[in-house]
Each structure stands twice: as structure tokens, then as C-alpha cells.
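Work Package 3 (structural annotation) set out to generate three-dimensional models for the target panel prioritized at the project kickoff. During this period the team completed the workflow that converts sequence records into C-alpha cells, so that structures can be stored uniformly alongside our sequence database. As a representative example, we reproduce one entry of 163 residues exactly as it appears in the project archive.
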Amino acid sequence: MNIAIYPGSFDPITNGHLDIATRAAKLFDKVIIGVYEIPNKPILFTTKERVELIRRAIADLPNVEVKSFSGLTVDFAKRVKAKAMVRGLRMSADFEREFDMAMMTKKLFPELEFVCLMSSVEYQFLSSSLMKEAASLGGAIDDLVPKHVALALRKKFRGKARH
């Protein structure tokens, strides 16, 4: 079975992430979205919340599942017997970071293939960070995240809007 992991913090998952997961699901027998428990950046949603938001978002993708992990991504890949790591590329700045990650991954786990999928045009600008900032300021985000994620963002920022 060809298993791929799609790792990240997913804080929160966006339609851009879902686009990559959906396309990866057509390429691999199984895709495991790996939610990094302790990202090296501030997070809004707990690991449990992020996993649940993703589970609801991928409910219609039978060969995609979600698991949380900590430690090295390559160790997670080995645990789940992944043959590939999927990443999304939005712009040239993403390429440089992903290239560095691919080279380190290859050093640590030479058997793991690194597969980059180009973001769809409508999601080229989209990031979880921008999403959180827009949501915190009351911006219209409904067409950029699943409905349940938009509701969760509004709930997190209710009464906390920055001006």
C-alpha cells in the first residue's frame, strides 16, 4: 500500500490544505494528515481541536485520515510506514523552505519520497496565519475555510477583535 503523510500544524486547516489533501488522495492509497503537536510557532487551537477540525473537513475522503504526532516528522513517517511526504507549494518563497526540508528529510530518511503539489490558483495567497489575522479582525473568511472552521475561528475571537 502506498501511504503518504501530509504533515503540518494546520492551525486551522484551510481550503488550500484541503485542496492538497484531496489531490494527494488521488495519488496515494492512503494519506495521513499529520498534525504536529508542538509547532515552533504560537498556535490558536489545541492539538485535539485541530485534529477534530480536520476530521470533520475530510469526512468525505475515505482514504484520508488524521493523526497527531510529536518529534521528528521522519519518525512519524516511519511509524505509519509512509513512502512519501506531501507538501503544498504556494509561491517561490515556499519552494526554498520546502527544498531545505526535502534535503534534510532525505538525509534522515532516504527511502521517503518528497512530493510537492502546486497550490491551486485561488489558494496561492492563503495561509493559516493570514486566516487567523483576518478572522481576528472580523474579516470575511467563509469561502476560504470549511464552514465549521469559520465558526470555530469566530468563537475563538468572539469579544477579542483587534482594532
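The chain is about 40% helix and 20% strand.
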